[in-house]
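Milestone M4 deliverable, item 7.
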Amino acid sequence: MPDLLMEKEIGGIVAGVDEVGRGPWAGPVVAAAVVLRPDTPLDGIADSKKLSPVRRRALAARLHETADVSIAAASVEEIDSLNILEATGLAMIRAVTGLSVAPDHVLIDGNRIPKDCRWPATAVIGGDGRSASIAAASICAKVYRDDLMARLDATYPGYGWARNAGYGTREHREALNRLGPCPEHRKSFRPIREILTQRIGITS
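Output delivered:
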């Protein structure tokens, strides 16, 4: 289970950062930054992928009440113009910038620190299973993005985003073949690019 050992060893104000949505074919990539306060209860905080939707939502609500939480995104347009890795870094920088107090150090899930990171930072592979702050960020980012994709599903119905969150499921692929891409699809991603190319060929 994730704990606060790394945060305590570093000392000062430490923010955990994680992202959700690098792999989907549609929607923004979302990042969260979380600073856990000393009195934040840690019971149940874990990697968001290992939690049920109901448990994630309850923990996210508790974290918003007891911790400093900031959530930010990079849009589909930014993903297509920058690439997904750079857009993910941009979302992370935005999330940390949005915290109410500037951190002394940032713990980032993965093996890459965003190039424009202006805080002392450590990349932590498997961080959402090791650092409670990163795990908390993964929970908040996941709940926020799932809710966002459900709202986008109502705007662009037919792709099943309320169920698949924009990932490349069979349902999503079949809908793409039937409906074609919409403005929230990542045109730089190969499956979307291929469908666009096919449709242009059909209509030309």
